[in-house]
Write a structure and sequence with these properties.
The chain has seven helices and four strands. By secondary structure, it is of the alpha/beta class. It has a four-stranded parallel beta sheet with strand order 2-1-3-4, sandwiched between helices.
Length: 136
């Protein structure tokens, strides 16, 4: 999903994570390109998830804030919510594909710029090849 800079990608990601954690037993990985964004979101979202952890204590063990797609270690079913996904994805496209292309994996990618805006450009081709649908 393409969301302009400063327009709430972190809130959208937190809302999606909250709903998944509250309504399922699936682990959720919040994936970031760097520690700064990860730390900021973990700190700013703490109150929201504290409420959920009180209602459903197991959610604390299922919510993971990680830097880079390579930090997702759990095999099997999980949801990956990737902030600044273009940066995470194109840092190493093969690693990204290998991490998301597994049975039971669901992926939500959020970015301010889903592709390079060139018809037939490299980023557009990569998104299409991986089967991503771009929402603007």
């Amino acid at each position: 999903m393409e969301v302009p800079a400063g327009q709430g990608k972190s809130r959208i990601a937190a809302g999606i994570a909250y709903l998944i954690l509250a309504t399922s037993d699936v682990p959720v990985y919040m994936v970031y390109p760097n520690k700064g964004l990860r730390n900021r979101d973990e700190r700013e979202q703490a109150d929201l998830f504290t409420v959920l952890h009180k209602i459903k204590p197991d959610t604390k063990k299922r919510l993971h804030y990680v830097v880079g797609i390579g930090s997702v270690k759990k095999p099997g079913e999980c949801v990956l919510i990737v902030d600044e996904s273009d940066e995470v994805m194109f840092k190493n496209l093969k690693t990204f594909w290998n991490k998301i292309n597994k049975e039971g994996r669901s992926v939500v990618c959020l970015t301010a710029a889903a592709d390079d805006k060139y018809k037939g450009g490299v980023e557009e081709k990569a998104l299409k090849t991986m089967g991503f649908k771009v929402y603007r």
